[in-house]
Write a structure and sequence with these properties.
InterPro entries: Di-copper_centre_dom_sf, Hemocyanin/hexamerin, Hemocyanin/hexamerin_mid_dom, Hemocyanin_C, Hemocyanin_C_sf, Hemocyanin_N, Hemocyanin_N_sf, Ig_E-set. Keywords: Monooxygenase, Oxidoreductase, Signal, Storage protein. The chain has about 675 residues and is α+β, with helices and mostly antiparallel strands. The chain is about 35% helix and about 15% strand. It has helices spanning about 1-5, 20-35, 45-55, 65-80, 95-110, 115-125, 130-140, 155, 165-175, 200, 205-215, 235-255, 300-320, 335-345, 355, 360-370, 395-410, 420, 515-520, 555-565, 605-610, 615-620, 625-630, 650-655, and strands spanning about 180-185, 320, 330, 425-435, 445-455, 470-480, 480-490, 495-505, 525-530, 535-540, 550, 580, 595-605, 660-670. Strand 11 (about 550), helix 20 (about 555-565) and strand 12 (about 580) form a beta-alpha-beta unit. Helix 5 (about 95-110) runs antiparallel to helix 6 (about 115-125). The protein starts with a helix and ends with a strand.
Amino acid sequence: MKLALVLIGLCALAAADAVDDTFYKHQTQVLHLVEHIYEPISSHYEDLIYIKKTYDPLQHLDLFKDGEQVKHFVHDVTHGKFLAHDEIFNIFHPQHRRQMIYLFEILYGAKDFDTFFNMAVWARDHMSPRMFLYAFSVAVLHRADCKGITLPPAYEITPDMFLTTDVMRKAYQAKMTAQKTVIPMKFTGSIKNPEQRVAYFGEDIGINSHHSHWHMDFPFWWKRSYDITKDRRGELFFYMHHQMVNRFDAERLSNFLPQVEPLDWHHEIEEGFAPAAMYFNGQEFPMRPDGMHFHDLPWFTVKDTEEYEDRIRDIIAKGYVKAKDGHVVFLNGTEGIDVLGLVVESLDHDFNSHYFGRLHLNAHVLLSKITDPEQKFGTPPGVMEHFETATRDPAFFRLHKHIDNLFKMHKEMLSPYTKEELDFPGVIVDAVKVVGKSEDSTANQIVTFFDESHINLGNMWAHTPEKVGIEVTTKRLNHESFKYVITATADKDTEGIVRIFLSPTYNWFGQEITLQDGHWGVIEMDRFPVKLTAGENVITRSGKKSVVTIDEPMSFAEIHKAVADKDATHFHKEFRHCGFPHRLLVPKGRPEGMHYKLMVVITDYHKDVVVPDMDVEHMDKLQSVGYCGVMEGKIPDGKPMGFPFDRPVPCEETFITKNMKFVDITVKTRV
């Protein structure tokens, strides 16, 4: 039983013997290693300096899974064959990616923590900083002896990837003049650009961090030969990006903008984008003017991308794909979406990867290099070539709407769910209500507002006097606390899974959105197990406990304090860095109120759960499983992600069963 809980990614407090002095030592070492990432290891950390000066990987080859690999790595790094320190690491660049994977496999294959950490210290100052940081972070997230270790927020480790150029320059001035400074950061664009109305969403540091961490938990380059299996990773790729697009559409409607249009390989991209950001080496992120068209690149063309996409459309239309060994895999079952996600993201799979190409990867690169496709001017990578910056460009959501339409094409070819598949016999959802935090709050109304987040830049540069506090403030969307109150009747003691979704009531034209048209655009708010007793049940669930979100991450300073205090409540053995920021769970809405449908469905726990011995209490403790799945083992909920709104709804009247309840709510933003 204990082993099963570990495998499913239980978000519980680490066992007492796990959060001990050794754990705190390891947590501190990891923190020190990622501080001032663009500068050499600080002389303040004598233990790291000692390792740096004395550790020789070639003297410890027996402590790695592949000693020969270590020998080749050390030779290539010390002979200048790896990316130089001041060059920009780009995960979409094949050579950069190969070099990063080389280091990751060595770190991941170290036989104990000390070997892992010593090797990381050796590599840190020999390599491009962000290449090292990426490989090291993915290793920390996946090594068994690093469970519970918390990485600081990405925007504190490499703030240049999250903040604008003017902010970074002002911060540097403050550092050089030793002046305490608070710098307000504005969103990019101007009132002349309609897309600026939703910049607060795509440029949110939490969204950027979530997207980055998701792709570290589920790297597109992950090999099945590694000893961790990524359950339903193809379906997770589809669903996480699908939900991000749906959330973006909801923000657009909140700001009187139409839902985002998918990109077309042969139509101009009407909206330009100026990131107003700068790399650590002084190069500016390239901007994209209005009205740009896609162009061929020297190593692949727009036509190549179209052909790969046509091949994917072909297997969707046929309903099957052939594996490398020739056997046929049908797509029209529940698992089809996972197979399709593997193919679209070009993950390590059983199908002909050369035939299907790298649609997702190539699309990001085509969009990124649109202003300098021949690399005539040596333009650095655009925001689309980094997961931590991609969502800042509104075209990211247009690109993923295009890709999402492939998955929609597949889902629309599946048969609608039958009454038997939708119903939970003996269970009736009688009433649903949303209640605010205060006694005088309006029922079925959620209030949103903007507040300030503070980003501490003390980690950006070494040797900054402690008395000099350099902070950045940025406005971010948030919402008042609320809870769901669900009344359900059961004819016997049983267990269920409550699934909660949100959908705009009206489209951009002010027309009511039918379930037939709107089911694909629903936003998952929560999903949790519940015990039902015979008779009436009142289920109360705080919005804060949403299975799709995580709380604000601990800062460098907060992690250091928790370690110094040996406060085990801050460290969880199955802590997840991946998760949608909770403050963005609810769309902004409008000052006068925006109408939504809140849809609650209770399904049969015993039919849905696929992990043996999984009980309600344990499943309810899983963190951010909605968009981020589990790191190892199986995702407990076996239903297709988005169920029951992932398939066509031919008729609303016949679709709605007694175990469902739809209510009208209002989302009102506080001005």
